[in-house]
Amino acid sequence: MAAKAAGDSPKGEESAAACPSDGQVALLRQWDSLQSGLRRLSERVLKDVDHATGLAPSSFQVLWFLLTAPGQAAPMSELSRTLGFTTAGTTKVADRLCEAGLMERLPHPTDRRVTLAALTPQGRATATRAALTLADALQERISTTLGLDGLKALADFATRIDPETAAAPVNAATTPTA
Questions:
Q1: What's the CA angle centered on 88, arms 126 and 56, to 5 degrees?
Q2: How far is CA 83 from the centre of its chain?
Q3: d(CA 19, CA 9)
Q4: How far lies 107's CA from each of 6, 74, 111, 166, in Å?
Q5: pTM here?
Q6: Number of neighbours of residue 10 by Cβ within 10 angstroms
Q7: Mind giving me the DSSP string for 43-85?
Q8: How many CA atoms lie within 13 A of 36 on its CB side?
Q9: Are 55 and 100 in contact (CB under 8 A)?
């Protein structure tokens, strides 16, 4: 079968093929509703955290990661990778957190090429306060609408479709319960 050259198709055939079907339009609308709703919700609850603690969303992400990391410290490269930040972005946030006394950079005990990001006592207190603020905001905005089972189901679905976590087992110890 010979390939058709561009312009060989009847007029309108290309434009008809380019239009999404009704099913595709419905899928795209569902996707838009999901991603825009989660984005707006995330912005609102992180605004609550910022209002209560003065932490920008990126700073809160770093502090939360360190709060839940073993020893409340992690290599800077792991911080970048886990949070999806560039090296420069991670350095910028880390610099701000160090200047604020919430985080410190420490040498790795066995690998001098590695720098650890670690919470200071003030950072631990701030991260804990921010996490409690976020939990309250989520309780108010999500749990009252979906219930804890609905929220767990939504989180399970998100984990299943996330290309980064879909293959990784869910840690039952970190899954919230009633």
A1: 30
A2: 7
A3: 16
A4: 60, 11, 8, 33
A5: 0.73
A6: 7
A7: HHHHHHHHHHH---HHHHHHHHHHHHSGGGEEEHHHHHHHHT-
A8: 6
A9: no
Phi-psi region of 114 (alpha: psi -120 to 50; beta: other; left: phi over 0): beta
List all residues 6 or more positions away from 122 whose beta carbon is below 8 Å from its beta carbon. Answer: 101, 102
Query: What pLDDT digit, counting tens, does each position of 105-164 carry?
Result: 999 999 989 999 999 999 999 999 999 999 999 888 888 888 888 888 988 988 898 887
Contact assessment for residue 159 and residue 165, using Cβ atoms and an 8 Å cutoff: yes
- Which of 156, 151, 149, 154 is CA-nearest to residue 170? 156
CB 95 within 8 A of CB 79: no
* 16 token code pair: 């008809």
The amino acid at residue 134 is L
d(CA 106, CA 129): 24
* Contact call for residues 96 and 89 (beta carbons, < 8 A): no
Identity at 99, one-letter amino acid code: E
* Beta carbons of 89 and 97 less than 8 angstroms apart: no
Strand partners, 118: 73, 104
